[in-house]
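queue> holo job accepted (iron/sulfur cluster)
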Amino acid sequence: MAGNFIPQTSAKNLEVLDLPDCVHLTDNFKCEILKVNECMGRECSFMLNQKQKSKSYNLWKKKMNELSESKQKDIAHTYFNGKMPWKS
Ligand code: SF4
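queue> job finished
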């Protein structure tokens, strides 16, 4: 992960330290969700750190559990092979 990167002496390696704490940043410092040549940095609208990801996931689970049982079954059938990951 970018946060654990130990810089070497070249200027190029030091640039890695400027990358954001984003769950979509791969070990090769590429973006795994956007078709971009390099990470867009802290100004990126899709940047998400681990804390934000957990909060978002918990909110999604809460919202899914608030839907009617029939709506939950429809969504489970359509998108999750009949499973309801928001129930766990
Ligand atoms: S900040 Fe944006 S471009 Fe960079 S890894 Fe995250 S989502 Fe991809």
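queue> Residues 56-88 form one domain.
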